[in-house]
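Case study 2.
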Amino acid sequence: MSPKKTQKTKPLKKIAQTDAIFENVFRENQTSDDNPKSLRLSIDSKAKVKIGNLSRNGKARTLEPKAADDHDTAWQAVLVPFGILNTDTNQLSIYLGQSAETSDFIVDCLTTGWDDHQSHYPELDEWVIDLDRGAATRSDRTQFIKRMVELSQAIGLRIRLIYYPPYHSKYNPIERCWAALENYGNGAILDSVEAAVQWATHMTWKGIAPTVQLVDPIYEKGIKVLPEELERYQPFWHRSKTLSKWDITIVPA
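Prediction:
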C-alpha cells in the first residue's frame, strides 16, 4: 500500500454554536442560489506573498532546477491577495494589494468588482457574501460595517454577510481557489510584482482564468468609527436575533 499524505481535516476547536452556524450558512446559501435576483459571492484574503528571489520550498517541472537565494530572508515587496469568487459562474477575481489588509481595502475591491460586472446582473436585488471573521471583516469591525453600508447604498442592493464558524473557514468556497493557486505556483520565482501578476493570471479555476488587478492605494490601519458616527448607520443594518455575530443584513434604505 502506498503512503498517504496526512490530511488536515480535523478542526482544533469547536464553539457551542458551530452546528447552528453551519445550518444557517447552508440555509442562506441555498436560498440565495434558488433566487435569480440574488448573487452569492465568497470572499477571503490569502497569506501575504513576498516578492523576491525566494525558493518558497517549492518544486518546478523544469530541466534544470531554478536558482533562488540560499536564504529566504530578503524581499523587495509584499503583496496582499484578496479574492472574490462568484459561486454562480465560478469566475474568480484576484486583487493584489500593495499596502495592508484593511476594511477599506476589502470594500474597495468589492466596489471595483461590482463596477466591472454589474452589467451582467441588471435584475439583481441582493448580494449574499460568504466570509469568515477575519481581522478586517469581523462583524464588530466598525469601519467594515460603515463601509459596507455605504456600498449597499451606492449600488442599491441588500447585502447579507453570512459568516462561517470559527476554525472552519476552510469550508468557505474560495479557500479551494487559493489551494489551486498555490499548487499552480509551486516553485515559481516571484522576483517582481509583474511576475506575481502573471503567476496569478495564468492559473485557472474550473477551467476559467481569473481576472487579476493590482491595487495601488496605501491603506491606513486601525481606523475606528466613533459610536456617535456609527449610530447614523444603525437604521441600515441589523444582526440576526439568534446568530448575532454570524448573520448580518445591510439594506440600502
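The CA atoms of residues 55 and 68 lie 5 Å apart.
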